[in-house]
Amino acid sequence: MYTTDTSSIKTKQLVILSMFSAIIILMAATPIGFIHLGFVKATIIHIPVTVGSIILGPKMGAMLGFVFGASSLITNTISPVISSFVFSPLIPVPGTSSGSPWALLICFIPRILVGVIPWYVYRLLNKLVKDIRLNIISLAVAAVAGSATNTLLVTHLIYFLFKKEYAIARGVAENAVYKVITSIIIGNGIPEAVVAAIVTTLVCKTLFVVLNKNQ
C-alpha cells in the first residue's frame, strides 16, 4: 500500500514538473514571460520555478530553473534588446564582433538556484515556525527569496562580469553602472517579488491539497 501511494505521489510530481516546464516555455514564447522594457526584459517566469522548488524539492526545482535559463537564452538570442549580450553568447558584446561565454553563467546559474533556494528557505521557516496557520508566511518569504535570488544574482553578475560593456550599451559612465543596477533592483525586483509572494502562496496551498501533503 505504501509503495502504491509513493508511486502515485511520484507520478503527480512528474506531471507537475512537466506542467510547469510547459508553462515556462509558454510564458517565454509570449509577452507574459519576458516583458520588454527597451533596455531590459522584466520577467515573472521565476514564479513557476519557485513553486516547483517548494512543491517538488530542490532537484526538480533546479530542472525547472534550467528550463528558465534556456528560455532566457533563446528569447534573448532571437529577440534581443540592448542588454541581451549578458544572457546570450551569440549576441555580440558592445565594442566587439563576438559574444561572451560568461553570458551562459548569468543566464543559467541564478535561474537554477531559483529552483533550489526557496525549498530550503521554506523548510527552515517551517521548522522555526511550528504554527501551521503561519504556513503562508513561510511560503511568501520563500517566494521572495526565489525572486531576490534571480534579481540580485543576475544584476550583480552583470556588474562584475560586464561592467564596462554594460556601461557602453546603456550609454552611461562606467562609475554610474551600479546606480543603473540599483534602479533595476528597485524598479523591477520589488514588484516581481511582491507578485511572486502572492501567486506562489496561492498556488502552493492548492497543490499541497492535490498532492495530499500535510502542510
From TrEMBL:
Name this polypeptide is given: ECF transporter S component
Pfam family, one: ECF_trnsprt
Entry keywords, A to Z: Membrane, Transmembrane, Transmembrane helix
GO MF entry, a single one: transmembrane transporter activity
Signal peptide coordinates: none
Transmembrane segments: 15-40, 61-82, 102-122, 134-162, 193-211
Protein's organism: Herbinix luporum
InterPro entries assigned: ECF_trnsprt_substrate-spec (IPR024529)
